[in-house]
Design brief:
Length: 326
C-alpha cells in the first residue's frame, strides 16, 4: 500500500523549523559523501519553462525517492502555481513505493529552509533587515524561514509592480510575528542597507547590482535555476564569498555563477565550498563582519527526499493521507 498525500496534507505536516533540521541532515550527508545524487535531469521547454527529474538516496537516513517537478515562470499570470509536481518516496531496502505526495508546498518549504540554513551559518548574527525580491510562494516561505534564524524586524518587498508587493504585504502581514512588512517600488530600495537579501524572482536578467549591496550583507540566490538566467550581476558574485548547496550543481546549472564565469570574472575555484562543508566544520562560515556572502541555491533532490521522509513519518504517525494499492 502507498500513502497518497495532497498539498493540504503536506502543508499541515511540514513546518519550517522541522524542515530546516531535515535539510541540514541532507546537506551534511551530501558533503560527507554519504548521499547518492546525480545532477538533476532538466527538460528545457519554451519560455524558460523546465521539467526536472530529481532522484536521490540518503542511506544513513533510510531515505530514497524521486521528485518530478515542473517550473513554468508564466503560470502566476494565469492563476496557476509556478511549481507543480510530485515526490515518490520508496523503501530503501525493497524499493516499494511508500508514498506519493504533492511537491509544490514541499518545494516551497524546503527551498526556504535551505536558505535559512545558509543564513544561519553565513549572515551576521544581528541581521535584522531582510529584502524579499519577489512576491510569490517563495517570498512567503522565505519570510517565515529567515525570521526563524535571525532577529528580523523589517522585511522590504520588491516585486514586478508596487501593486504586487502591496498585495503580498496585505496577505502575509501575520506570517512572521514581530516583523514589519514594507512594500517598496524598486529592488535598489529593497536591498540598500539590507542585512539579508532573498532573491526569489522569476527574472532572467540580473536585478541586484553590486553597488547597492552593503558590506556584511548575505544573499540567497534562489530564483534563477538555468545556465542562462540569473538574479545577481557579475560584479556582485565576483566580490562575494560564494557557497553553494552542491558545487557540482552550481557549476552545471546556476547562471548566477556560470555567466560571470564565462565572462572571465573569476575561475571555477571561486565556487569552492558547499554549505555542507561549513556545517561539517571543514571550512569557516563568514570570515569577517564586512564580507559579503552569497548562497547559491540550485535546489537538490537530497533536500526533497529528506523532507519527504519526514512528511511520511508524520503522516503515518498521525494517520494522514489515503492508502491505496498502486
Amino acid at each position: 500500500m502507498a500513502r497518497i498525500l495532497t498539498r493540504d496534507d503536506v502543508a499541515r505536516l511540514l513546518s519550517v523549523a522541522a524542515c530546516i533540521e531535515a535539510v541540514e541532515q541532507a546537506q551534511r550527508a551530501l558533503s560527507a559523501g554519504e548521499a547518492i545524487m546525480p545532477v538533476r535531469l532538466p527538460l528545457r521547454l519554451p519560455a524558460h519553462a523546465v521539467h526536472l527529474s530529481m532522484p536521490a538516496a540518503l542511506p544513513g537516513l533510510g531515505a530514497l525517492g524521486l521528485k518530478a517537478v515542473t517550473a513554468f515562470p508564466g503560470n502566476p499570470a494565469i492563476g496557476e502555481p509556478q511549481i507543480q509536481g510530485v515526490v515518490v518516496l520508496n523503501d530503501i531496502t525493497t524499493g516499494r513505493v511508500l508514498a506519493v505526495m504533492d511537491a509544490a508546498h514541499l518545494t516551497g518549504v524546503r527551498t526556504a529552509a535551505a536558505s535559512a540554513l545558509a543564513t544561519r551559518e553565513l549572515a551576521l548574527p544581528d541581521a535584522s533587515v531582510v529584502a524579499l525580491l519577489g512576491a510569490g510562494v517563495q517570498a512567503a516561505t522565505h519570510l517565515e524561514a529567515i525570521a526563524a534564524v535571525r532577529p528580523i524586524v523589517e522585511a522590504r518587498v520588491a516585486a514586478r509592480s508596487l501593486a504586487s508587493a502591496e498585495r503580498f504585504v496585505r496577505e502575509h502581514a501575520d506570517r512572521a510575528p514581530g516583523v514589519r512588512l514594507v512594500a517598496v517600488e524598486t529592488v535598489e530600495e529593497a536591498v540598500s542597507g539590507a542585512h539579508v537579501v532573498c532573491a526569489v524572482s522569476s527574472t532572467v536578467e540580473p536585478i541586484v547590482r553590486r553597488e547597492w549591496i552593503a558590506p556584511g550583507a548575505h544573499l540567497n540566490a534562489v530564483g534563477a535555476h538555468t545556465p542562462t538566467t540569473r538574479e545577481l550581476d557579475s560584479a556582485l558574485v565576483r566580490d562575494a564569498r560564494v557557497v553553494g548547496d552542491s558545487r557540482d550543481a552550481v557549476l552545471a546549472e546556476k547562471g548566477d555563477c556560470l555567466i560571470p564565469l564565462g565572462e572571465g570574472a573569476f575561475g571555477p575555484g571561486h565556487v569552492s565550498d558547499e554549505i555542507g562543508d561549513v556545517l561539517l566544520g571543514r571550512v569557516p562560515g563568514r570570515t569577517s563582519p564586512e564580507q559579503i556572502t552569497a548562497y547559491m541555491s540550485c535546489g537538490l533532490a537530497v533536500q526533497d527526499v529528506a523532507a519527504a521522509r519526514l512528511v511520511h513519518e508524520l503522516a503515518v504517525a498521525g494517520g494522514v493521507g489515503v492508502e491505496v494499492a498502486l
